[in-house]
Design goal:
This protein is of the alpha+beta class. Helix content is about 30%, strand content about 35%. Strand 5 (about 95-100) and strand 6 (about 105) form a beta hairpin. The protein is elongated, with a radius of gyration of 16 Å.
Length: about 130
């Protein structure tokens, strides 16, 4: 299933955990794996704390300090978003998570976050695949 997410600012972290949980529940899989992948080169997926939204802001700040915008990146000559590609490559496009007793298994404070690095964008696509036994 494809989940579509609209982003509203240039860089942001969006908790998509409940959307992914719904796909897992609808799948009927009792035991298996849920693979989640963002289908874009300037966004990423991570598992991190979802109780405090400031964690996402801190992550984006840390990435900006490490990989600044417009720092002479060669790709900026093409479409001015090299930093977004670099950050997305470091964070990665996907996560694989266990499904146990029909539910997505995450720790108490963990959630699945879409990390927008070149927004705002309409309809970011996230592919959710659930594999396992009923």
């Amino acid at each position: 299933m494809i989940i579509r997410i609209d982003t509203h600012v240039h860089k942001q972290c969006i908790d998509i955990t409940e959307k992914v949980r719904a796909v897992v529940r609808e799948s009927g899989v009792a035991s298996g794996v849920c693979h989640v992948m963002v289908l874009h080169a300037t966004a990423a997926l991570i598992v991190n704390e979802n109780d405090d939204p400031e964690i996402g802001v801190d992550l984006l700040d840390a990435l900006d300090r490490s990989i600044p915008d417009h720092a002479g990146w060669r790709h900026d000559r093409v479409d001015n978003n090299a930093q977004a590609h670099i950050k997305a490559s470091i964070l990665g496009p996907s996560e694989s998570l266990p499904v146990v007793e029909g539910e997505l298994l995450l720790g108490t404070w963990q959630g699945i976050m879409l990390v927008e690095l070149d927004g705002p964008r309409s309809g970011r696509r996230v592919k959710v695949t659930v594999i396992g036994e009923s």
